[in-house]
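Q: Hi! Curious about what Phytoene synthase-like protein looks like structurally. Here's the sequence.
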Amino acid sequence: MRPSSTALAPPGDHYENFPVASWLCPASLRPAVAALYWFARTADDIADEGDAPAEQRLADLAAFRADLLALAHRSPVSDRWPQVFGPLAAAMERHRLPLAPFTDLLSAFEQDVVRTREGAGYADRADLLDYCRRSANPVGRLMLHLYGVHDAQAVAESDCVCTALQLINFWQDLGVDLRRGRRYLPEADLRAHGLDPAAPASWRAHPNARRLVADEVAWARATMRQGLAIPHRVPGRAGWELRAVVQGGLRILDKIEAQGFDTFSRRPTLSARDAPVLLWRVLRMGQSAR
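A: Let's find out. The predicted structure is below.
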């Protein structure tokens, strides 16, 4: 799970581009941003890294959740993750961070473990959007909270961008995720294009596979467009960073299209060659929401 996911991280980078200590992030917020990073990164690693069986991953996530709830209620926490809950305690105290986004993230991590163990996918787009609501949107909401942006329109736009980035990550990583037992293509969409949801090994060779991915790319792009005004609501340099993240996600969609919508066999990525295009788009986006 990669909440890319996150509002301020390009898709598919496993939190590596989360804006920890970024020069675009005000110094006063860097400790809190770092605390959010380590919370999400550690929980993601529990759910996704190493060779532990699913039962152990779920037990560890339950213990992680118990420490979060203890922290929120000012009770003692265990000594298993001091690098997470020490800084997070300070951030929650100083910035009055809400609890719900953290528990939503954990529920998404737990869902990933359970569905991977069961070989289960997502019934339809609504089912997948519910996952994105918990796996991607919470970090965007927490970042808005840190920047003092609370109005409903801004939150809705942030949710659109976060969800779009998560969807982009899914369509970028189709081949990678399938090899790991992760199925994010909605079963209703698979059936609509004649693919068998129960036979993922057959998807890549199906004559309608690329048309299916093209439809999913269009969905992600339309979702992103619904949130294009949010960078204008985030103050200072962070607004420019968010413009770059939005345009980076859209650029990935361009690359998926350029390779014929085949991400079953090759994962598109950004490189230094994309920098001039991204810079031009970010500057253009700085003039007005597109």
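A: A fun detail: The mean pLDDT is 89.
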